[in-house]
Amino acid sequence: MPVTGSLADAVAEHREALLTVGELPAVPEVSVREVRVPGPAGAPDVLVRVYRPVSAGRALPAVLWIHGGGFCLGNVDSVHLGAAQAALAASAVVVAVSYRLAPEHPFPAGLDDCWAALEWVAGHSDELGADPARLAVAGASSGGCLAAALTLLARESGGPALCFQHLSTPVLDDRLATGSMTAFTDTPIWNRPLAEESWRLYLGPHPGPVPDHAAPARAADLTGLPPAYLSTADLDPLRDEGLEYGLRLARAGVPVELHNFPGAYHAFGGPAAPEEQRRIAGEHLGALRRGLHPERSRAAANGAI
Length: 305
Hints:
alpha/beta
């Protein structure tokens, strides 16, 4: 949602209880169910919503779907339609996670919840009808930060093995030193003052240096991470940190598809024409489908389908 004042004010005004599954808009051909999975040690269970194409067979790829909102806004209701459409378009089990938000729950609470959800998905492939060899993460904005951080954690922990990461206008760097972050101080949707406040709320009283898991752009080594699709918006203060992260992934030998959309604001909101919005959404879904079904992409490239 566009923030017109401070994030702290928006938190006070826009925190709402989640809808029940029965209150959510129905999406034809997609089933939705809620599960509470074990949370981090000493923390509450984590709510996830599981989206699955009704007519699909077994052993679909699975995607952990992480909503954005500057680490302190948004919820799984806000990504309901997107998660359902992704499940259908990409022939996948999509698991949207409801993680704890700042400022009440600063880093690493939200990341710990996402990690607990990822481990649950990886360990329940039979129940989900998922292929354990095709597990991915996807997130937009601050959700992209959490998704990228999960890839670092999974690499360091020796699993769960991830086959793909899908990052849309991701938040990646708390240092706020790029050219676009310096230039875009009053842009719609997102701007430097909001970014500064977002990082303050997310990091809270965290002592010492900011860890890579909080701000993935700080990671010195990006080798061994899963293939990536990363999109940025031309008029977004986050543009340059996203582009730089994508290039660093490529230099580290990680297959990357990187796309900057001209004339677009953060999260592709704003004045873009409806046909442009549809084009961007279509590309994002296509990238997810290619990342989860690389064998189909290779077959199509070879003229087999």
